[in-house]
Amino acid sequence: MNVIAPEAAAAAGTEARLEQLADISQQLLDHARRLGASQAEVSCSEDRGLDVNVRLGEVETVESTADRGIAVTVYFGKRKGSASTADLQPSSLVATVEQACAIARHTEDDAAAGLADAELMAREFPELDSWHPWALQADQAIDLALACEAAGRDSDARISNSDGASASTGQSLSVYANSHGFFGRERGTHHSISVALIAGQGDGMQRDGWYTSALAREDLEDPAAVGRKAAERTIARLQPRSMATSSMPVLFAPEVARSLVGHLLSAISGGALYRQSSFLLDSLGTSLFPAWMQIDELPHLRRGRRSAAFDGDGVATRTSAIVRDGVLQRYILGSYSARKLGLQTTANAGGVHNLQVAASAPGLDLHAIARQMGNGLLVTELMGQGVNGVTGDYSRGAGGFRVENGEILSPVDGITIAGNLRDMFQSIEAIGSDVDVRSHIAIGSLLIGKMTVAGND
Fold this sequence. Notes:
five-stranded mixed β-barrel, globular, single chain, six-stranded antiparallel beta sheet
């Protein structure tokens, strides 16, 4: 098999590198066919990045990465075999296909195995504005991280230490191809600046931080602003208390509210459903949320965090509702899980794309919802993994602030919040428009009318 040497692409442009990955993919597919595979698919990727870490004004690490990888899956009827390699030498690529074929010949038939249907393959590839490379040099990245940390440490005399600051940039190229004749090319960039600070002394020390991330450097927050925000959050946590155990409203800040959407996605994912390990079995078409609740998937959003024209199976993505007027409209399925359930793929092989959770009313932010809540708990941090996906039981360590008469007051920690996700979903009373833009799940502050808060007071 005559494969173009990867070194030849190192100095070439992005399009040339994508073409090289596509050419390798085609040769691998051809070789799989010659070995008798009835179907095959190939994923090729190339990632490059720079990451620096500083602490207390000194450089700790500077890391430059350059990775490539190939994954091959072949099907002999309903038997499947997969193999992967990081070595792009021709002999290694040939051996990878042969290993995948050998595995497939020794596996059992799986009625759900195989490529997604050919007619579902993406045919349109809109410009998604996801490629914004940043020629960031190590000394520049160090300066950014140092400026971020210094701004935080200089913000308040009570900032006593630092867990460090970082600046990073990365870019990725990938090609997915299969024996239907589908070739999908993707490219993307990501950049971030972050810092974590420590305030106080001895047993009274508290830690918090902040970060900014974006696909394009111009969308990043200023490093000094990130440092000051981290300092503000850290100082606000000083001298926390616990709370008396009781039932009360709980307000989730935007950066933790998206975890609740994550629990929903896990429960309605195809893998959990066909394994019957979800508390939302047979929930399609049922009312899970208040009637005003809307969640949409927007895979073609320009400069979206997870925008894509096709999913991990090559299936064309599309804008669609997940929740409409509080009712679950569909599950999250790739072609394999869809076949296991006797349903149609939702173009979510590899996960969801950009999700948008609509605000319950215009102009709502965290402070407005706190005033609406009156008395309760504002959660800004969650700890632990106490969520049972089978029953929906929810119990996690939390930190945040006591809210009294609509005012956000003293910090609290050492508490646990508990409930059942099905009940929590139904008890959502408000969602803000103060979206945390650092995630592919766009959601603002979220208020749940009643949860159990367990503390030590």
